[in-house]
Amino acid sequence: MGECLCDEMAESMAERVIQLRDLLLASGGRTCQVDSLLVVAGKVYLLEIKNWEGSFEIVDGRFVGLSACPLAQLQRSKTIVEHLLRRYGFRVEVEARLLFINPKISLYGLTRQEPVLLRHQVEPYFGSVGEGSFWDQWDRKIGEFLLQQHVPENRFANPVVYDPGTVQCGVMCSGCRVRMRPYDLLRLECPTCGTKE
Ligand SMILES: [Zn+2]
User: Fold this and answer.
1) Chain mean pLDDT for the chain
2) What protein residues have CB closer than 5 angstroms to ion ligand 1?
3) Residues with Cβ < 8 Å from 3, sequence gap 6 or more?
């Protein structure tokens, strides 16, 4: 719901900003799910959208009493995206924001330091993204790169299925794909071609 509402509000900038949604990105063995990612004027905007309702408290930049602090998660996602871009030579600034889209939320202890936007701040924020500029070829290149980095979910969701009765453990010969047998204390030997490893 939050994401749909957010899409409606993003309508005003639909033409001028490259928008990517629901990306699963990975860098350095860590993965993150990104709700919404905008690219314009050589800058990447990473948006995490929450439809939370109720009262919450923030102390020292952390949500009190939540095992998974959304601010910590946002920072983690930002770091992953930054690493990914840098690793492939994109010198691009990443701005991350946590959007609370439900008006029925109270955030006690919220300061200007937190990268948080409340419902009434979202539309003005979208208006300010890229300071009104339109995307160009460089933005498109960044967007296409990030889209290419998207990891299909099932790569992690479906583990390899195998039947222990039909597999054997051991080291195979790289040439014959046959299981190697012990040769001496330090080496294995292929029974077919005699290669030692
Ligand atoms: Zn062999």
Assistant:
1) 89
2) 173, 175-176, 190, 192-193, 195
3) 21, 35, 36, 49
Is pLDDT above 80 for 5? no
CA of 34 to the centre of ligand 1 (A): 46
Indicate if the pLDDT at residue 13 is higher than 90.
Answer: no
- 179 DSSP assignment: B
How remote is the CA of residue 175 from the centroid of ligand 1, in Å?
Answer: 5
Distance from residue 30's CA to the centre of ligand 1 (Å): 37
The mean pLDDT value for 53-69 works out to 92
Q: How far is the CA of 189 from the centre of ligand 1 (A)?
A: 8
Task: Outline where DSSP puts E strands in 41-104.
Answer: 43-50, 54-59, 62-63, 93-100
Residue entry with tokens 């937190």: 114
Identify which of 80, 107, 115, 93 has the alpha carbon closest to the alpha carbon of residue 43: 93
Measured at the alpha carbon of residue 129, what is the angle toward residues 124 and 134, in degrees to the nearest 5? 125
**Predicted confidence (pLDDT) at residue 66 exceeds the cutoff of 80:** yes
Band the pLDDT of 162: cuts 50, 70, 90: low
- Ligand 1 center from residue 167 Cα (angstroms): 19
Whether 51 contacts 2, CB under 8 Å? yes
Ligand 1 centre and the CA of 183: distance in Å? 13
